[in-house]
Write a sequence for this structure.
């Protein structure tokens, strides 16, 4: 009897275990089949062995068409596949990449691609998961463009304000000339009108440069000192430098390959942030010098500084500590994108005496 009981218990346990196994297998296959994320499993040679319905739908292939193919098949040829595969083998790849559908159409995906290892630590399979993030990406681009346009809008209203000055001057002098008979005085007024008109032309010239190229962003060669000076000039035109002492320390820089307007946009954004950090006034220091093969631009303020907890977030799109209507949180993100485009870097550090320094470096042109 005892033996029988033992046997029965063992039998029940075993069948429960089987039951459990088959249940969890069912759950797993349901997850696999119903997952909104595309899941693609490949063997150690990267040949696809399983894919779920979401993957079929996302990439536009049927099971049969993809089984046995390499996963590289799913990426856009513009992606640096070698780098992705290297990262995957190291500790798994994670990131936004361009993927490709059967019909050749490319789309943005968020991809997680990890090795699945056996007990011995050898790679047996690769697990690739992908989400289509095209819509989110489009929204992001749209907002970046909106921010650029808003920047132009703010500048335009500043310019209108600036232009009023010389225009009223010209109008006043012209009216005075109408009633004036003394040739000497008329000459003098005419010369003043010319002065005002020059001033107006200068303002328009600066602005045209900004808005034109912020849409084009065509690269040529540019000296960062020039872009920095233009950025400062533009900001001072907007009357934003009240209470701010400006220290300018320009060293010799070599030209770099970049669009001057994009460079100017980087400096406008950084100087604006520096000024925003000094609501009660302070000192803005612009310092440039060449360090090795890099042009280095340092923009320092004596402002509030960046709290520790925000430091890892400030370059994220939409991260702002400013009230609605005052900050979009896109300024530093755009700086980062532009600097990155020209293979430069952007960093920041706390100043010992308070405030923050942003440091931008660009590789100098070598040909
Ligand atoms: N010079 C600075 N001093 C202090 N905080 C700064 C400075 N520059 C940027 N920040 C912080 O980084 C955040 C993000 O900046 P940014 O991307 O330009 O967006 P926004 O200026 O619209 O808030 C700011 O809200 C602010 O908290
Ligand atoms: Mg900003």
């Amino acid at each position: 009897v005892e033996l029988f009981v033992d046997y029965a218990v063992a039998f029940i346990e075993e069948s429960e275990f089987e039951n459990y196994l088959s249940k969890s297998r069912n759950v797993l296959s349901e997850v696999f089949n119903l997952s909104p994320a595309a899941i693609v499993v490949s063997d150690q040679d990267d040949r696809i062995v399983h894919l779920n319905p979401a993957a079929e739908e996302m990439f536009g292939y049927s099971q049969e068409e993809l089984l046995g193919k390499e996963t590289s098949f799913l990426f856009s040829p513009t992606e640096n596949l070698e780098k992705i595969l290297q990262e995957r083998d190291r500790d798994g790849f994670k990131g936004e990449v361009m993927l490709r559908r059967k019909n050749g159409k490319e789309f943005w995906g968020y991809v997680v691609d990890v090795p699945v290892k056996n007990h011995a630590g050898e790679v047996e399979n690769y697990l690739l998961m992908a989400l289509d993030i095209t819509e989110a990406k489009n929204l992001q681009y749209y907002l970046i463009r909106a921010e650029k346009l808003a920047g132009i809008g703010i500048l335009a209203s500043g310019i209108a304000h600036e232009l009023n000055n010389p225009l009223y001057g010209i109008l006043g002098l012209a009216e005075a000339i109408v009633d004036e008979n003394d040739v000497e005085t008329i000459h003098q007024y005419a010369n003043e009108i010319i002065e005002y008109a020059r001033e107006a032309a200068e303002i328009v010239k600066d602005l045209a440069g900004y808005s034109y190229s912020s849409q084009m962003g065509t690269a040529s060669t540019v000296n960062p000192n020039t872009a920095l000076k233009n950025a400062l000039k533009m900001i001072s035109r907007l009357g934003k430098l009240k209470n701010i002492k400006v220290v300018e320390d320009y060293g010799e820089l070599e030209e770099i390959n970049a669009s001057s307007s994009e460079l100017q946009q980087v400096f406008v954004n950084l100087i604006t942030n520096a000024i925003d950090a000094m609501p009660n006034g302070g000192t803005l220091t612009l310092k440039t010098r060449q360090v090795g093969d890099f042009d280095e631009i340092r923009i320092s303020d004596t402002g509030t500084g960046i709290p520790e907890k925000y430091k890892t977030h400030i370059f994220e799109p939409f991260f702002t500590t400013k009230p609605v209507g005052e900050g979009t949180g896109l300024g530093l993100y755009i700086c980062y994108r532009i600097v990155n485009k020209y293979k430069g870097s952007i960093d920041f550090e706390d100043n010992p005496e308070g405030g923050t320094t942003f440091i931008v470096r660009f590789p100098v042109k070598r040909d």
Summary: Confidence is low (pLDDT under 50) at residues 209-215. Residues 61 and 102 are 6 Å apart (CA to CA). Residues 269, 272-273, 331 surround magnesium ion (ligand 2) (CB under 6 Å).
